[in-house]
Amino acid sequence: MRILLAEDEHTLGTWLCRALEHSGIQVEWVDDGRLADRALQQRDHDALVLDLGLPGLDGHRVLQRLRERDQRIPALILTARDSVDEKVAALNAGADDFLAKPFALAELEARLHALVRRARGVEHPRFACGPLVYDGTRRQFTLHGEVLALSPRESAVLRALAQRTGEPLSKQQIVDRVFSDQDDVHPEAVEVLVYRLRRRLDGSGARIVTLRGLGYVLEPD
């Protein structure tokens, strides 16, 4: 999962980036509403965590512009404004969920996973492609019921593809979802990881296909 975090509290933003990435969630962090608006237009994300009190462009306007563009990315409002009127206004403006500060990290993670599952029409944290199954609770893949031994990066690439089974992901989209902003990773590195995954999946009933000009797609064999 890759999220956009729009939060101007630097202590909170730094902590959230580290904590969420430790849990396998890739985070792009911006501290200004104008940067958030730009990032939402230019890059692919699975969910938005949005503070309402942003400088430059407040959270309400970021959310309004997002929905005016008909971008259907799930949006979770994260703010210190914990009034009923504030919640109602945010939800009516197009927010999908609302979490007041202070909050428990585990609750934020659970809400994000739930939002993304609902957005994809999946009501449980399992992704499957034929005999290949990812269990989000155990954070592991099984193939024909047996645990599939993968390196962390192989698992992350396969998870990104499994979450979009049947839909192509470009090399750059995979880099954005798998590697943190601090990693100096060239998109061609994805080719090596995909090559390894293809060898592991060979003859299994699930395969990774290259679609010229579009990227890679995981599909039943």
Automatic annotation (TrEMBL):
Q: Which GO terms describe its cellular component?
A: cytosol; protein-DNA complex
Which keywords describe this protein according to UniProt? Answer: DNA-binding, Phosphoprotein, Transcription, Transcription regulation, Two-component regulatory system
According to the entry, DNA is bound by residues in 124-220
Q: Where is the Response regulatory domain?
A: 2-116
Highest taxon listed in the record's lineage:
Bacteria
Name the InterPro entries for this protein.
CheY-like_superfamily, OmpR/PhoB-type_DNA-bd, Sig_transdc_resp-reg_receiver, WalR-like, WH-like_DNA-bd_sf
Against SMART domains, the record matches this protein to: REC (SM00448), Trans_reg_C (SM00862)
One BP annotation, GO: regulation of DNA-templated transcription
> What GO MF annotations does this protein's record show?
phosphorelay response regulator activity; transcription cis-regulatory region binding
Q: Which PANTHER family match?
A: REGULATOR OF RPOS, TRANSCRIPTIONAL REGULATORY PROTEIN TCTD
In-chain residues carrying the UniProt-annotated modification 4-aspartylphosphate: D51
Q: What is this protein called?
A: Winged helix family two component transcriptional regulator
Looking at the record, the residues that make up the OmpR/PhoB-type domain are 124-220
Keyword Cell inner membrane part of the UniProt annotation: no
- Transcription among keywords: yes
